[in-house]
Predict the 3D structure of the following.
Amino acid sequence: MPPALYASIDVGTNTVKMAIGDLADGGAAAVFDRSASSRLGEGMSANGARLSETAMARTADAIADFAQEARAQQVLGLAAVGTAALRDAQNRDEFLARVMERCGVAIDVISGEEEARLSFLAVRRDPHWRGLPNLLVIDIGGGSSEIIQGEPGGDRIAQRRSVNLGAVKVTERYLLSDPPTAEQIDAAQQAVSGEFAAVAGRPEGDWKLVGVGGTLTNLGSMDLGGWFGAEVLHGHALTAEALQRLIDILAVRTVAERRSIPGLDPARADIILGGAILAARAAERVGADRLDISTRGLRWGVLYDRFRLR
């Protein structure tokens, strides 16, 4: 059967990501899956919620490169979405027009609710978990974290709970020393547990917990002892015991020392402990003794949704 190649671009606050998948015959083979750090949201807070010229230029360059790759791969369709930075930017229309004129790419700026739906869909329709009736998805961001519960056997979200703590916030509020003190780590644990206390506990029945996002993929790579590629990491099971072991390792190391840990992206060395605490407490709250790692986030949900993979 000939390939059926489709592309999706996720224009985020810090990175632009593109996936090209072969969706022939109900499959989901990754043909191309890359990211570029363009920092679109850099300086927005100090700039009246406006995108800077430099950030827009960097991001437009990244999108142009990805669009050229999609054309070279002769994809049958391309969909692009924008998230938090573009939701908030006062001058987003200027940026969207610039990208359309230069690249011929129309960016659909989606709501937080739609972003959650598509992130869940990235797991629900993935071959690893497509056949499971009950799925919980955890997405740990920089400023907030979400637990998404799907309807049994379906694509719809039954319940979505967000907590106002992410890996960056936990780090900046509680883990102030380098390395953090035992008292700081205890305070972070208590704060995170308190936030998750408002989230419903484990649903009745047999549920699979799947984690998406950079925090989870880095923790999974560390558990494997190094980065062996997305396809090796995708579907890897991270047990509660392994997660606690990683917290113990990170807690006693400085940021500089963490950068040499196999599997950890050095750029995340400062915030990975905060993210690990969030992951551990979330799993504990829903009663999961392990979580699976997905390397295919929002961009894959867009592929599945826009191009009708079931």
Summary: Residues 53-72 form the longest helix (20 residues). The chain has a mean pLDDT of 90. The domain at 5-113+299-306 is CATH 3.30.420.40 (Nucleotidyltransferase; domain 5).
